[in-house]
Amino acid sequence: MTYQTAQIAKLxxxxxxxxxxxxxxxxxxxxxxxxxxxxxxxxxxxxxxQLLRTVFQAEIISSRLRQEVFEIVKTAAAAxxxxxx
Length: 85
Known about the structure:
Elements: E1 2-3, H1 5-12, H2 16-24, E2 41-42, H3 43-57, H4 63-77, H5 81-84
Antiparallel strand pairs: 1-2
Helix pairs in contact: 1-2, 3-4
């Protein structure tokens, strides 16, 4: 299944600009675009975004732990699931 930015944002409960922010931070896999430049998301993107929302909603007190979690999410976005584990 494919989604547009507004659709995927609505599914995970964030503003479309948040999706663009995550893309800029490389927290989600590379997003293909149509010939006219529109982003095309798929179920892999949706799963990664759900992971992001879960991780960022958790209360993490230690800044070191927060950085480690951030790196795990970036590694998963790069399709290195073994490295993320």
